[in-house]
Amino acid sequence: MGAFVISKRYNDEYKFVFTSRKGKVVFTSLSYELKFECEEDIERFKTNMQSANFLKFKSSSGKFYFKLMLGDTHFATSRKYTTSLRLQKGIDEIIKYGSVSEILDFSVNDFIFID
User: Which Gene3D superfamilies does the record associate with it (predicted)?
Assistant: First the structure.
């Protein structure tokens, strides 16, 4: 089963990624100023997944990716895939596990191991 992983960007904004069962990033969200906005959007996605659209693109370097749309709003962008088959497998992973995936919060930068 996949997971939504919340983290902080270098500019102190929040983002989340959806990771596959094998731990690979499938897509990355837009930036959020506050963490609760990030959490709310994950829940909104999980409950409204049936209205999600996947717009497929091919980059100038020949890689495949998709933009995830919720209604008319751009929600997230996928990683780059080498083939369209792998792109489709990423989309299938979201459809199969997105609504039941857990949320992991790694946004607090507390170090576990102290010098």
Answer: 2.30.29.80
Q: Whole-model pTM?
A: 0.86
Domains of the chain and CATH, by start:
3-102 (2.30.29.80)
What does 42-103 look like in DSSP terms, one character per residue? Answer: HHHHHHSGGGEEEEEEE-TTS-EEEEEEETTEEEEEEPPBSSHHHHHHHHHHHHHHGGG-EE
Distances (CA, A) of 66 to 12, 44, 54, 74, 104: 26, 19, 6, 11, 23
Chain segment 22-48, per-residue pLDDT in tens: 889 999 999 999 999 999 999 999 998
